[in-house]
Design a protein that fits this description.
Radius of gyration: 16 Å
Distance between the termini: 41 Å
Pfam family, one: Hexapep
EC number: 2.3.1.30
Structural class: alpha/beta
Strand order of the largest sheet: 3-6-9-12-14-15
Enzyme class: transferase
Shape: globular
Family: Belongs to the transferase hexapeptide repeat family.
Order of helices and strands: HHHHEEEEEEEEEEEEEEEH
Organism: Fodinibacter luteus
């Protein structure tokens, strides 16, 4: 029964993350019922458990396909996603099979964590650190590293590593660092207008 306790804890953490990051969220119940991003995450978590079981992969893929049909979010069950993950709006998000996502990460709609290689059996998707925010429509492609505390602007295309604490915007993404340590993300919007999400 410890897995039930762990699942409850994870659901509570996901709800708290949604309440913290979505100013339109009024109550935990509202978010639990009406957030397709959260529904996709919760279904992914179940599908991922199936993916890790011997013989569970075909069922995990069917579950993930159903999740995509229900939520508009496609998360491969082989991806590894950390705690307190939140997808705002959800529609059009794609997370590939070998993607790794850290804790306290937030994605907006239309984000792709995709591959650039057709080679089988290799890591083809990004590794995203902790406390990363990726803006609407951004594409993060290939076996690259996105460091902790990175912000990626809306519609940016990232194909190279981004060091911790950086801001990446544009096509292809250019990297800059905040003018001072601990720069407030809201203030960063005015320093780098392309980060508006």
């Amino acid at each position: 029964m410890s897995w039930i306790r762990a699942a409850r804890t994870m659901v509570r953490e996901d709800l708290d993350a949604a309440m913290l990051r979505d100013p339109a969220a009024e109550t935990r119940a509202d978010v639990a019922v009406n957030s397709p991003g959260l529904h996709a995450i919760w279904i992914y978590r179940g599908a991922h458990r199936l993916w890790l079981r011997p013989g569970g992969r075909p069922v995990a893929r069917v579950v993930s396909t159903l999740a995509r049909a229900l939520t508009g979010v496609e998360i491969h069950p082989g991806a590894r996603i950390g705690r307190r993950f939140f997808i705002d709006h959800g529609m059009g998000v794609v997370i590939g099979a070998t993607a790794v996502v850290g804790d306290d990460v937030m994605l907006y709609h239309g984000v792709t964590l995709g591959g650039r290689s057709l080679a089988r059996g290799t890591k083809r998707h990004p590794t995203v650190g902790d406390r990363v925010t990726i803006g609407a429509g951004a594409r993060v492609l290939g076996d690259i590293e996105i460091g902790d505390d990175v912000q990626i602007g809306a519609n940016s295309v990232v194909v190279k590593d981004v060091p911790p604490g950086a801001v990446a915007t544009g096509i292809p993404a250019r990297v800059r660092f905040p003018e001072h340590r601990g720069e407030d993300p809201y203030d960063a919007l005015f320093a780098e207008p392309a980060i508006f999400i």
